[in-house]
Write a structure and sequence with these properties.
mainly beta, Maltoporin, Chain A, 22-stranded antiparallel β-barrel, 39 strands, 54% strand
Length: 720
């Protein structure tokens, strides 16, 4: 059915909000407020919460130490910041932090992020309340209080992980007594309803419930779907001192995903001539990707002797996925499988992998406290983490069905035959850690951490062939030093290591098939300066991260012609800065990164000095809010994003131009019918700028994703 004209759709969205007769949420008591200011209509009172640079990042493992006082870089993105920006998925947080960029962020699929140019590993770089989770799914944000990003020090918090950073989702916990209800719509007909309720009982028990449902109607063609979330958290005092916390979330999303466009032969298509809403996954037989997840945890905290606390924390995540897509890949007519054909055609495959099951179990025990040795205070954390991961799959379909066109005009027959095997995986790890913050003087602190990991990994094809198994032990150290130059001005430095582990594929073409490869150690050095005083907070950091690489060496086209081995490194050096400032009615937040990413010491000397694909050399993210004094409660919002050019091919022969996106919004906080309310109206990509947002090189193929077209969205919530 044809979409109504743009202005009619906008009017329909606003009418839907008015009929709901409620307005937007204020943050619950104790929950982090945004740095941007909110003014209530009934009183000219400005409410300013803690800025994200002043928040603590719990996943760092150094306790409740604000980021502005910690010797590493990080960002805490609050729930309120996400709401103001109209962000509902993790993939869109790239609009708020310059150090975080897109890394194959396909609409309708799980989001992939890069931090300081390194793509986070979905299996090893994500945490939920500090415990490992698998991010090969859509992670719901409705029951999350904040997202923590620790940059450059992931080896301190993870046994194995990609360098760049670690992402931690903080689950909402009971916070006072309130009920918030809300609705969000956009001009393409998307509708979301949600409720967030918290209650504390006199006997010390408390609970919180989050429920959401959304009819997904994006502007993207052939991508309608649905997603739902139901989550609950409860806590109770045990014996007057101990705290028992339990929580459980269930989520489901069903939506067709969007495959990327690509080069047309040697030509980069003009982004201005491409309809960004075109979805090549538009066959009559195309099925949605279905993500279902259930995650629950139990945490018990017990004070011990003076200044010490014991924490026992267990979590299990169960994921089920039906992964299906009409997938364009390569050009057999021109014998080039890295891109589409010169005439805009491509090979199309029917891909289906139903009933994928992924389970992650984690149990952590830690003791945290203080001791004094030789007159110096030590803030210690000792812990042990055991993680078990399994992935179980069925046979899959990956069948050529014909030749498509980039305008989506060609319909082809399906072929769901299960013709290909998949790979089942199992993994167990035990990690022992110690972290210490030593107060050398009143102005100087020494920070250190050591993590020892014992790892066992196994894999086998679904037909019981190509079995592999290996075990490894390794230790990753990290050390930092901070010194207060003046009150509120801190100089710091840190250095550390990270680990990545892999086995050579168990295929006949490999000379070392099924053999474990030597674990590769990345290394990171960072020096920074942080300022925190009054309404201004800022951080500037220079970093150097070097990551060794594995590669396939040889022709790799017949038996015993290929060897998987260490092949040089990828080195990322850069400067990253962020700042927050408020003065009267104006609040500003911004971040920037300059990055030099290059290949080094490659076996093929022609690769040395080349830039990695899909990594911009410069990024700038700005957010602003201005509160109108003449209309109490009314704030004007603006979000600007700039990213530089990206390399499309590994040989650096094609680049996408840089781009700038402007998002605008209005927030109005008032009292309506005796209830605290907030209304939000926003427009993303206000100038309707056309560009290639990112250029991921995945599966040996160059893909292109366009910047989404201009879209309006509006929301209204109420504190009941």
């Amino acid at each position: 059915m044809a979409q109504p004209p743009f202005f009619s759709r906008s009017a329909l969205a606003l009418a839907s909000i008015a009929s709901f007769h409620v307005a937007a949420q204020t943050s619950p008591p104790g929950e982090s407020q945004p740095a941007l200011k909110t003014v209530e209509a009934t009183q000219s009172i400005t409410i300013t919460g803690r800025a994200s640079l002043r928040n603590a990042a719990s996943v760092a493992g150094f306790g409740d130490v604000a980021l502005s006082q910690s010797p590493y870089s990080g960002t805490v993105i609050s729930r309120s910041q996400l709401t103001d920006a109209g962000i509902a998925s993790l993939g869109d947080i790239t609009r708020l932090d310059a150090g975080t960029t897109d890394a194959y962020n396909a609409p309708g699929y799980w989001g992939q992020l890069a931090v300081r140019g390194y793509t986070l590993d979905a299996r090893y770089n994500f945490r939920r309340d500090g415990l490992p989770i698998n991010a090969e799914t859509t992670l719901p944000t409705g029951n999350k209080q904040a997202l923590e990003l620790i940059k450059g020090a992931s080896g301190l918090q993870a046994g194995t992980s990609a360098p760049g950073g670690l992402a931690n989702l903080v689950v909402k916990r009971p916070q006072g007594n309130f009920v918030d209800a809300g609705m969000t719509v956009n001009d393409s007909g998307n509708l979301a309803l949600g409720i967030d309720a918290s209650h504390h009982h006199d006997n010390g028990m408390a609970w919180r419930v989050n429920a959401e449902t959304e009819q997904l109607r994006p502007a993207l063609h052939n991508a309608n779907g649905q997603r739902s979330l139901l989550a609950g958290a409860a806590e109770a005092r045990v014996g007057g001192l101990g705290l028992l916390e339990v929580e459980l979330e269930w989520s489901r999303q069903s939506q067709p995903s969007m495959p990327g466009l690509s080069l047309l032969g040697s030509r980069l298509p003009d982004a201005g001539s491409i309809n960004p809403n075109t979805n090549l996954n538009n066959q009559r037989w195309s099925l949605p990707v279905v993500f279902k997840g259930t995650t629950g945890s139990v945490r018990y905290s017990q004070p011990l002797a003076k200044d010490w606390t014991l924490v026992l924390h267990a979590q299990q995540q169960n994921l089920t996925t039906d992964d299906r897509i009409a997938f364009p890949y390569g050009c057999s007519a021109e014998n080039d499988y890295t891109r589409y054909c010169s005439d805009g055609s491509f090979d199309l495959y029917d891909y289906r992998s139903d009933g994928e099951k992924r389970t992650t179990r984690a149990i952590d025990a830690s003791a945290n406290g203080q001791v004094s040795v030789a007159g110096m205070k030590h803030h210690l954390s000792l812990g042990a983490l055991n993680t078990h991961f399994t992935a179980r799959f069925n046979e899959q379909a990956y069948n050529w069905v014909g030749v498509g066109q980039i305008d989506g005009s060609v319909q082809l027959p399906s072929d769901p035959s299960l013709t290909d095997q998949n790979t089942n995986r199992s993994e167990s790890s035990t990690e022992l850690r110690v972290q210490d913050r030593v107060e050398l003087t009143s102005a100087t602190s020494l920070w250190g951490g050591l993590r020892h990991t014992r790892l066992q990994r196994d894999s086998v094809r679904t037909d019981d062939s190509r079995a592999t198994a290996y075990s490894q032990n390794f230790t990753t150290p990290w050390v930092g030093l901070s010194h207060d130059l003046t009150p509120g001005l801190m100089l710091y430095a840190n250095t550390g290591q990270g680990i990545e582990s892999e086995v050579a594929p168990n295929r006949s073409r490999y000379t070392n098939a099924g053999q474990p490869l030597a674990a590769l150690k990345s290394r990171q050095v960072e020096v920074g300066l942080k300022r925190r005083q009054g309404a201004l907070a800022w951080n500037v950091a220079a970093f150097d991260i070097e990551r060794p690489l594995w590669n396939d060496v040889g022709t790799c086209d017949v038996d015993s012609s290929c060897t998987r081995q260490h092949d040089g490194s990828q080195r990322h050096r850069g400067i990253e800065a962020d700042a927050e400032w408020s003065a009267g009615p104006l609040s500003l937040r911004g971040s920037a990164m300059l990055l030099r990413a290059r290949r080094h010491d490659a076996l093929d000397a022609s690769q040395n000095g080349l830039q990695p694909t899909n990594v911009p050399a410069r990024t700038l993210k700005l957010q602003a809010a201005y509160t109108l004094q003449t209309v109490p409660g009314l704030s004007l919002l603006a979000f600007a994003t700039h990213e530089g050019q990206r390399q499309v091919l590994p040989d650096n022969s094609v680049t996408t131009p840089g781009w700038t996106r402007l998002d605008l919004g209005v927030r109005y906080a008032t009292r309506l019918g005796g209830y605290t309310t907030t209304w939000r109206l926003g427009v993303d990509n206000a100038t309707d700028y056309r560009a290639w947002k990112e250029a991921p090189y995945q599966f040996g193929h160059a893909y292109l994703y366009p910047l989404p077209a201009r879209q309006w969205h509006a929301s209204v919530q109420i504190r009941l």
